[in-house]
Predict the structure of O-antigen ligase family protein.
Amino acid sequence: MDGLLWQRLSTLGAFMVPGLALWLPSGYSWGAVLLLLCSLLGVTTWWRRPLGAGAGRAVALAGAFALMGLVWVLDMDGPGGLRNLDRAAKYWMALPCLFYLLACPPHPRSLWWGVALGAIGSGLLALFQIVVQDMERAAGFTNAIQYGNLSLTLGVICALVWCALGATLRFWQAVGLAVAMGLGLLGSLLSLSRGGWLALLLTLPLWAWLLWRWAYRPMLVRAAVLCVLGLLATLALQGPQLHQRWVQANTEVQDYLQHGKADSSVGQRLDHWRLAWAMGLDRPWTGWGRAGYAAEKQRRVAAGQAHPFVLAFDHGHNEVLDLWAKRGLLGVLALLLLYVVPVLIFWPTRRRLRRGARLLDTTALALRLTGLALPMLYAGFGLTQAFLMHNSGNMFYLFMLMLVLAALQAREAEMWGAV
């Protein structure tokens, strides 16, 4: 097959990964499987192609993936043996996909409209589950926390792209992205996942600062108006439930701090964090391992050092602390690189967004903000949930990062002649 067909397939994959992510069963995997097949069948297309000016970025991202994959390989020590390699396999299979995408990059528009479709689908599915199926929390085809956090990610990316592209958008494009933004955030709210709200709250000042600095400022005013309207609509729809969740969280914090009550959503997280920190301090270099973590947790519960409620979970409800207890400093370092490397790659600067007397490239800005949103939001999600313990968290993160980097590198080559 010729290079044009391979590029069209990568563009289709870029649309499918976010576009099908939440409103179909394992939707995030469909595009990933297509890209993996393309990378294997088209190996002669990308194998010997030079990486050009973006070689450093590609190698750094591939290195972060590979190191995290090595950490997950150590999961073989847990029950199930080789079956525990499924998570490591995702990181290793991402490597050929990365280099295939760099050789045959997707068009940015496929990403934007894939994200928009994914956000619209997640919001509509959440509405269906709450209004028609009368579910207490929207959960899609996964659990409520994963669903809500990924829906929020799609909504935030729509908002960033909408603001970054600004006046270059046609009316119907602006409306489509605005609707997608609202429905993506609505999907998160209807999931009642408080960890996602915390991540958004922590990152909101960063988005406001970056957009005020680089984006078309009238779009920020429109975004603020839409957010206010969306908040009012949400309060009208789910106000009592949202208020109840926040009151419940505050009560559970006080119950744990004052009475050691850990048999609640917040209480068991606080007990998990305390336990994981103490376990990591005892074995800071290697951690306890997956099997050792479970056994030592049981021993400490029996000794009265933790509440029995923590035995119902196989992770520490915090990404960093979970790896600290299980894999020590190696695990923590690998996770930090998985977050920090994309931040360094995508961080927008004047030199990266402009060349010489050229005007700001809004497409490059939108791509960089999209790539930046992934590690920043995931780090926020990881404060209250071991997000990478789940297939959806890993697949969406890995493939979205690769797709954004490939599209960005192609855009820079097109605009500035980078090779």
Observations:
- Residues 24 and 370 are 23 Å apart (CA to CA).
- The chain is about 75% helix and 0% strand.
